[in-house]
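We keep the chain:
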Amino acid sequence: MNSVANKYRSIFGDAVLALAPMAGYSTAPFRRICYDEGADFAYTEMVSADGLIRGGEKTFEYMRMMEGERFTGVQLFGSDPAVMAEAARIAAQNGAAFIDMNFGCPVKKVIRRNGGASLMRDLDLMGRIAAAVVETVEIPVTAKIRSGWTAKDENYVEAGLVLEGAGVDAVVIHPRYRTQGFSGRSNWEHIARLREALTIEVIGNGDVTDVEDFIELRRVTGCRIVMIGRGALGRPWLFRRIKDSLAIEAGVDVGPEVVVEGGIGETVSIADFMLRHFELTVSWDGERRAVSEMRKQFKWYLRGVPGAKEYRLKLMSAADADMVRSILRSLKEELVKRWRKLA
């Protein structure tokens, strides 16, 4: 067995859960928390291949990894086979566990550069990019696609076969069309059909927000590995809940149930996760940047939490790190009081 196959097995062999690449969100601190909560592997935010070979400092920042990250891949986007191959070589030299090629991003600024989901309209170019990257690096290579540009142009099976033929090790499909963006429901039947058509690993993705979604997606598609994106924002403990569910199904005692708010069992406050996330970001980016960068993350943590509006507004206007810590301590006290009343 060659070295790439061995590396693939070490990363993906026993994996069931991945954290998706999400621009502005799947930062090193968030990846670290998700790893601690049970994610098996993760991806950086999307990295421009053009920016990487130009040596852009900000582009290299996206590839930085925090101590405690186990298997983090670098996701690249671009439209030139030679540029993508060189960017993959640079990423591999800078610690990428694997390379992922983004052929699914629906964002206009990426599409305008013929990147992301734009490549779903040019499978020949997609194949040449994939082949160039596979030939250049000695680490696993994966790709993420969509169902197609539009429903009329549905071609995910054809894209998957092109990528398999180019030597890609696994394909992730987000089963929406580019024209859908992130609206509507993802079509898990597309994942199932792609899995039936390919011999390489197909990783399922789309609309997994709880344990039941994870179980149902695997049932419908037959996929072993599920990638979770927006469902983990503000809810990184979702990975732990899924892993605990799988362990219980296998007859393993996982101890007392961990509940974040309400319910019976050991209480882990949302505020504890928020503070942990904030402190990791402080250690990574410094206090000033952490205060501003965490605002969008805090919104996800407090989404749907009754009575959280006051704390959300305070966190959005907090002037410094000490103020953020004080607000989170007060929030924890409020949530613990509420849990005790419910219990």
Observations:
- The chain has two domains: 3-249, 259-342.
- Residues 321-342 form the longest helix (22 residues).
- The two ends are 55 Å apart (CA to CA).
- Confidence is low (pLDDT under 50) at residues 262-267.
